[in-house]
Amino acid sequence: xxxxxxxxxxxxxxKEYGFIFPSSEIYDGLSAVYDYGQNGVELKNNIRQYWxxxxxxxxxxxxxxxxxxxxxxxxxxxxxxxxxxxxxLIDNRDSKKRYRADIxxxxxxxxxxxxxxxEVAKANKRFGExxxxxxxxxxxxxxxxxxxxxEDVRTKMNETLGNDDLVxxxxxxxxxxxxxxxxxxxxxxxxxxxxxxxxxxxxxxxEGAEVIYLRPETxxxxxxxxxxxxxxxxxxxxxxxxxxxxxxxxxxxxxxxIFRMREFEQMEMQFFVxxxxxLKWFEYWKEERYKWLGxxxxxxxxxxxxxxxxxxxxxxxxxxxxxxFPFGFRELEGIHSRTDFDLKAHQDLSGKxxxxxxxxxxxxxxxxxxxxxxxxxxxxxxxxxxxxxxxxLEDGSLRTVLNIPPILxxxxxxxxxxxxxxxxxxxxxxxxxxxxxxxxxQYDDKDAIGRRYRRQDAIGTPYCVTIDTQxxxxxxxxxxxxxxxxxxxVDISMLSKIIxxxxxxxxxRP
Length: 510
Ligand code: GAP
Known about the structure:
The protein is an alpha+beta fold. It is about 40% helix and about 25% strand. Strands 3-9-10-16-13-12-11 form a seven-stranded mixed sheet. Strands 20-19-21-22-23 form a five-stranded mixed sheet, with helices on both faces. A hairpin with a 7-residue loop joins strand 7 and strand 8 (about 210-215). Bound molecules: glycyl-adenosine-5'-phosphate.
């Protein structure tokens, strides 16, 4: 199956099985805004809970907060968002379509990467088992030429974008002969900056109303609460503050389903450290966050680091963890060493001292910050696309299954009486009542058992408990495991322990 087909199937499966719906669909939708359905919200809650447990509850020196979405407008002045949270935009005069200039350039690079991948695939076919992909990539003249071209475009792109040289960005687009994908023409306007923050007004009268912003990241809510948490929690550096919550960005290029949305959710943690120790902690969090993704069944081949060459003015190290989405490798999580930029900026603008007294060194200082920031919706898409599988079974039938890590599955257990008689439904309800406080369970007694198993496979339920004739005789049931489809017979009294133990296998430990 091609990647495009896979992506289309994932989107329609998400809708058909109640995971994700386009927002306001009966009014033809609202671009780049999505709603989570009855199964989607369970998966989303589980991702959030797993992150929270891993980052907050399993670390003694990390606590969580939940700050408001509305914040004082000066916060966004201090953080630099009012002046510099911009995307470079360009319009095509013929199609009247608007694009992000940096994305046009990124897409150009992706096309060259595609050509390389096609060369590699062809060579792989030609040489068969003896094919050494690494050597081929390093020595084949055509591939080397493509790589040089990528390097050249990247350098020019970083230079122009990094220096805010919008004339240079347009010149590069023209030099590369990039055409509008809709009109096919190269009739471009100049490139200009566009601020991504949504604003609204607070106050009852139009004269007295104040312009405030919907937060474009959750991180600033942590910075402005640094002092409160440090004092009230008697925190000692190094320590972290985490939060999850909605963020809003007026994204111009909004596409690729829930990958880039206008309203989305972030899970962020700011780790406050002694100045000079930030790079050590940056390496630590880089590894930990990669390990965390691994505990969710995401294999090494689907993850990679992308270290930033061109750093933001406030960072002294930054990396993205990229995931191989159905449309290629893209940023899933950012890990940034943000120095003392944010706390210092808030200290300067607010006039409040945002410092820490270090009892070990007897010094006052503004701590440095290492941030981990992952998009909830991107994590959802990573889990969902990693889990989606179509299998041909021995009898030739097709099974669509979501191999979601059991700890994240919307439902952990489906309780299924084999038939709707002979006391089986009553017995099944007893089991359901026993399990449902600890595990999210579903009861299903409609259709043949095989069809019921398929329905549970399609929403990723890891365990199906079936009540049959033997249950009524000896109090045993079968547990069917989603991935292997194997069934085993166990005593009802052991169900809770067996399921609980299996869910805990392979969880993240710092
Ligand atoms: N506080 C740092 C920060 O916000 P970012 O790289 O702009 O950094 C962090 O965003 C993460 O938030 C990204 O890695 C991505 O997972 C997610 N994210 C950013 N913009 C998004 C959008 N428009 N839609 C969905 N997720 C987004």
